[in-house]
Design brief:
The protein is an all-alpha fold and about 300 residues long. It has 14 helices and no strands. About 40% of the residues are buried.
Length: about 300
């Protein structure tokens, strides 16, 4: 939140002095704001800043590497909004540009596109295809010297989601645990709490409260705590953690607490529904919980 405020302040300051709002400077801020707002769940706001930068690049730097990069960010946003066809088209365009302008780029240069495509496929319920895409990820040679191997962490987390979708609980648990261990034992752990929240959520779901109530509950509670700390109050990721934790409480026979969390998630979904339909990959788990707790 503090970083986002600084970005807004910088953008407003640039606009107050004629000549300061150079496209390159404003563009960097637009990308940072769009990416930050997407991560925090403020999807509708994020779209405005990413679209502004994409439009400027299409006008002044068409078919360029900067445009290819922004298209990936727009694809992430489109996936979060449930606009899956738009997300695929944006990724296809980005990949085409990257191939044309940087045919000799190192293999790991395409990892961001691969991760975003895997996220799209997971949102569409195409977990096996997501795993195939993740098999193409290339670990950069310099990552072995980094305090946190972010490429491996991201790969493991996405694999865990895919395994979970395929009903391969033990594989999902192993992948999520590996990602969590990497983050928790890193000297830069405090800067990567979003990774930790995702790993806790996935691990708790993979364990399952019916199988190991204490372990699963602890992971899901930690994920919920981190998302509340990290995300905007209307983040769909926060709602996702509330739904998962509510399901755990229902398994444990704590119906009242489960319904409290369900109501909190419903409020977040209602907020986003005012702007348009909530993406199916967010809406389906909520509706399943609603049916379960009303039965």
């Amino acid at each position: 939140a503090e970083g986002r405020k600084l970005l807004f302040d910088a953008l407003h300051a640039l606009g107050r002095v004629p000549g300061n709002d150079a496209p390159n400077t404003v563009g960097l801020i637009n990308i940072a704001l769009g990416t930050s707002l997407t991560l925090e769940g403020r999807l509708e706001e994020a779209g405005k800043y990413l679209a502004a930068e994409a439009n400027d690049l299409r006008l002044h730097y068409p078919h360029s590497s900067p445009l290819a990069r922004v298209l990936i960010e727009q694809a992430k946003l489109a996936t979060a909004l449930g606009r899956y066809d738009d997300a695929r088209a944006l990724l296809d365009e980005s990949d085409s540009i990257a191939q044309d302008v940087s045919p000799n780029a190192p293999p790991f240069a395409r990892n961001l596109s691969r991760f975003t495509r895997a996220q799209l496929l997971l949102a569409q319920g195409r977990a096996r295809e997501a795993l195939t895409v993740l098999d193409q990820v290339v670990i950069p040679p310099f990552e072995k010297d980094m305090p946190l191997p972010t490429t491996e962490v991201t790969t493991r987390l996405l694999q865990a989601h895919a395994f979970l979708a395929l009903g391969q609980g033990s594989d999902a648990r192993a992948a999520a645990q590996r990602a969590l261990d990497l983050v928790q034992h890193s000297s830069v752990r405090k800067y990567f709490e979003a990774f930790e929240a995702d790993a806790d959520l996935t691990l708790g779901t993979a364990i399952g409260c019916r199988a190991d109530a204490r372990a699963a509950h602890d992971d899901l509670e930690q994920a919920y705590r981190l998302y509340r700390q990290l995300d905007d109050g209307n983040s769909l990721e926060l709602a996702e953690s509330e739904v998962s934790l509510a399901g755990c409480f229902a398994d444990l026979g704590h119906a009242a607490r489960a319904k409290e969390l369900l109501a909190a998630a419903q409020r977040i979904h209602a907020f986003h529904a005012a702007f348009g339909p909530v993406a199916p990959h967010y809406g389906a788990p909520l509706r399943a919980l609603q049916r379960r707790l009303s039965g």
